[in-house]
């Protein structure tokens, strides 16, 4: 095979995702998995039934249409209208993808040329770095710093160069739980317009905002024609294994992203698309109850973590809590997370892997709270016991 490395240089160092590593560790040790973000309770039974019904009725068992089934594209457009007053044409301005993950990949591959720069909040959700790299572009971090993790907008301005092609936003932000506020969104939008930048915005936690409200940047003046908004059913409906995501954007942007998407998966999740179309039409009460339940869980786990000695950075959104372990003398989050199952039977995720500069997040550790109350209480007790 010669001496040339097998793995494409662009993927160097990207190895196994931390989520896969930590979930495998949880399975191997039987520890409580507060690492990878997936709920331990499935979404609404009637939505699961809708998927079963679709399979039985032969809906979506064969290749669905490339952009997604019309029922789902219409339901996505209705959702954007209902919650944000945004109007999208289901035929030309909506694209169904294999989760938000594929939407991110397709957007990066479609919109970037080698040498382009992408500014994104650091810590980055892990697939951003990989997808920017696969597109041959360069990531430029705008580091969010504890305790508030608010973006420094002067710094953002200073990072923009003639090579900047797009801003990759994520609000609510994984892993910090930061939610962009109205003034921040308008300042970012102004910069995008002034410098003629595209914006790709990952809004998978749009229905998990506990303080303030989720505001899509696409709704701001001058943004609709330059924004690719991405979301997914995984988080909102607690079916992370179904992998139904979507893009909403102007017709030319959707056409560009679709061009890449059709050669990644072409289509996916046929029967689940029917079920997600029903899920998106659930009454407002579903969305409110879901948010309130997770809000209570956030508070439950925050208290448990504080009692165990962690410094807790209260998240305004998502279902993750970032903590700092320096408080009780720990120095390295990755080593801490690898040892935690042995030490006390709990799995968490080290935020250092989401930073280019590992020093920046060396002592940050993320816990998810999308688990049953008893599981969160048990995990808290275990963490308190190990602190001794
Ligand atoms: N973006 C962020 C910020 C996430 O946390 C996740 C994990 N759900 C994704 C994208 C991927 O979403 P999906 O499972 O729909 O591919
Ligand atoms: N979004 C999930 C998290 O942040 C992980 C999804 C994945 O494993 N790719 O925990």
How would you describe what is shown here?
The chain is of the alpha/beta class. It folds into 2 domains: 9-42 and 285-387, Aspartate Aminotransferase, domain 1; 45-283, Type I PLP-dependent aspartate aminotransferase-like (Major domain) (Aspartate Aminotransferase, domain 2, 3-Layer(aba) Sandwich). It contains 13 helices and 13 strands. A hairpin with a 6-residue loop joins strand 9 (311-313) and strand 10. Helix 1 runs parallel beside helix 12. The longest helix has 24 residues, at 284-307. Bound molecules: 4'-deoxy-4'-aminopyridoxal-5'-phosphate and glutamine. Glutamine is lined by residues 17, 19, 36-37, 174.
Question: Could you say which small molecules are bound to this protein?
Answer: 4'-deoxy-4'-aminopyridoxal-5'-phosphate, glutamine
Radius of gyration from the alpha-carbon trace, in angstroms: 20 Å
Anisotropy-based shape: globular
> Low-confidence runs (pLDDT<50, min 5 residues)?
none
Count of the domains: 2
Read across the widest sheet, the strand sequence of neighbours is 2-8-7-6-5-3-4
Helical content stands at: 40-55%
Helix/strand structural class: alpha/beta
The average pLDDT score comes to 96
Estimated share of beta-strand residues? 15-25%
Number of helices: 13
Cα end-to-end separation: 53 Å
For the biggest sheet, the summary is:
7 strands, mixed
Q: What is the β-strand count?
A: 13
